Amino acid sequence: MPQVGSVGAGNAAGLLGYCLKNNLLGATGASGAASSGDGLFGGLLGGAAAAPVPTPSATPAPAASANSARAILERLLSRPGVQQSPGYKTGAAGQVQTGNGRTLGLDGVRGQLRTQMCKLVLNRAKSFL
Buried (b) or exposed (e) across 69-101, using 16+ Cβ within 10 A? Predict the structure, then answer.
């Protein structure tokens, strides 16, 4: 699995746009299980080893989640060089770039994992602000 923690600002912005376009952030609040550095998805961020997947938040917040992600995307896109970076176009195509030169296409990922990847990307995008 790629480590989302090594994704650059351009790739994060492109991926966040991809996730919004495909409605992959609206199922639960953006601060669900994926925001932690622990567990299965923590490994994607370079955190702890795999553990059972926590149950997502029971409080759906589709509009708030998407609106928050859009605001983060707008702020990230306003930063110099983000839209011009090669990673931006790659991310907009749904490709996660990692520091080791590998990519993962989100089109090939299904179900909860795809949604969780988008939540991880959202958290990574926040770290650039």
Answer: beebbeebbeeeebeebebbebbbebbbbbeee
Q: How far is CA 23 from its chain centroid?
A: 12
pLDDT digits 0-9 by tens, 84-105: 999 999 999 999 997 777 888 9
Separation between Cα atoms, residue 73 and residue 83, nearest integer Å: 11
CA–CA dist 89, 95 (Å, integer): 9
Return the H-helix or E-strand segment holding 103. Answer: strand 103-105
> Residue 40: how many CA atoms within 13 Å on its side-chain side?
9
